[in-house]
Amino acid sequence: MGKAASRHPEGIRHRFGRGRRRWAIIALALIVPALACNFPQPTPTFDLEEIVRQTLAATLLADPPALTPMPLPAEATPAPPFSGLTTATPGMVSPFPAQPGALSGASIDYLALPGDTLAALARRFNVPPEQITSAQPVPPVGLIPPGQALAIPNAVGETLLTNAALPDSEVVYSATAREFSTVEFIKLAGGYLSGYQESVDGENLSGAQVVERLAVESSTNPRLLLALLEFRSGWVYGQPATSKQRSYPIGFEVPGYSGLYKELSLAAKQLRLGYYGWRAGEISELAFPDGSWGRIDPRLNAGTVALQALMANFYRPAGWSEALYGSTGLVARYTAMFGDPWKRAALVEPLFPAGMAVPELTLPFPVGERWSLTGGPHTAWLTYSPLGALDFAPVTGERACAVSRAWVTAAAPGVVVRSERNVVALDLDGDGFEGTGWVLVYLHLADQERIGSGASVQAGEALGHPSCEGGSATGTHVHLARKYNGEWIEADGPLPFVLSGWLARKGERAYQGYLVRGEEVVTARPDGSHTSIIVREK
């Protein structure tokens, strides 16, 4: 946690930075390794100022010009602005203010949204946790049941727009994307994107393949990526109007970082920063290109904050509200392209239902073998995802970054829904779709003998060999993270990460941390020293 900004009465430090510093942070996000596994990361996920201090050089980039949104298709009739928020059950809508301005009264009546925790709400509303009260018990650590009525002292002040933009399920790669075909949609739209090709990591990909690859790997809804492309540069239905829109279709304009894949990667990073930063209560303000800032309304859902944060990269406050909520803004464009997102959300949300269970997992290696906990909780997948992953390395005496003879095993029974580019995604509910239920994501599994997609496995069955292949690694190991209904899950959070009875605990910084079982403690050490050794007993 950063220190409180004394000039702000709410006393919560904004994690995006202000003015031109925003563009330095975007550049730094390209410099800091996204998945530097097996190596201690110098800072927590959201401590961006520390990243700035520890980077040897950073270039301050000029603010890019705001791009003019393309007009809506003539036949499109966007739905009226939505002023409610889907919560516990289909058709249930919680009261949700739709007007900007200060929150009135000494106390705020608030209905808990899916994914809320007491600690995060206390940070968003700038009050001590003990001052948040309810007629029902409020879990001190776990998730608050969706729809639970809470009374919170009003210490917020004036905020930015309070309109809901998108439900959470339309921002992450969730069940709402299950029947959506990115390839078919782009083909039928017939715009610039349908004929686009790009080389990514030595592989020639079509525009549809780029979008789908980013959507699945980052767990970002493909509809949202397409709506951003159309709104910012007209790539989906038409042709980009300028050379800049062809090179930088979202508009970040980071030198040397052009093209569809890299621009969409930056968009996904900024969405994660808003989405997961809001989940954790780590952000409270938005900074705009003109140096101004505004308080985020604490009653918003994570999906809306993700969009607000992304759009604040490109527009000053007046243009920002019109670009996001106006009659030809992003929300209207999204609805015109894909229909009412709230109706889809009502069929699948809440993403975190009341009483949800954490699956029983085993350590990801065979019984009796000695492995090392080389990385405590760190980014689950790429920059700005939660500290949701653990790293394990086999103790075999093999050379650094060798493809180990040891096997990584399934931590639970399931179906392999993805096995590519040194990643294995294991679907625990067995429905064959990565955006629903619990999914375990393994990284750095070598190409050699890696299990194929579609395989059904039991707990303890072999998945592949740990290595340095895929991402960035300083030694042979496996990186293990969790998703639930499309969201990356924090390791030391309201949904505990327990492996063979060992509970994950984070340290002061990313990659530091512990596994705890009763009085026993295993300490994460990248050098594999004796305090990091763990043996799976059964």
**DSSP helical segment count:** 12
State the helicity in percent bands: 10-25%
Largest sheet: 9 strands, antiparallel
Q: Distance between termini? A: 38 Å
Strand content: 15-25%
Alpha-beta classification = alpha+beta
Radius of gyration: 23 Å
Query: What gross morphology would you assign?
Result: globular
Stretches with pLDDT under 50, minimum 5 residues: 1-35, 39-101
How many domains is the backbone divided into? 2
In total, how many beta strands? 25
Give an overview of the whole structure.
This protein has 538 residues and is α+β, with helices and mostly antiparallel strands. The protein folds into two domains: 65-351, no CATH class; 370-535, Glucose Permease (Domain IIA). The protein has helices spanning 21-31, 48-54, 118-125, 182-189, 207-218, 222-233, 243-247, 260-279, 302-311, 317-325, 330-338, 341-348, and strands at residues 36-37, 85-86, 93-94, 107-111, 149-153, 197-200, 203-206, 285-287, 293-295, 370-379, 387-394, 408-409, 414-420, 423-427, 438-443, 456-457, 462-464, 472-473, 478-484, 487-488, 498-499, 502-506, 513-517, 520-523, 533-535. The strands form eight sheets. Strands 10, 11, 13, 14, 15, 16, 19, 20 and 25 form a nine-stranded antiparallel β-sheet that branches. The protein has a four-stranded antiparallel β-sheet with strand order 21-22-23-24, with no helix packed on it. β6 (197-200) and β7 (203-206) form a beta hairpin. The longest helix has 20 residues, at 260-279. It is globular, with a radius of gyration of 23 Å. Mean pLDDT is 84; it is low at 1-35 and 39-101.
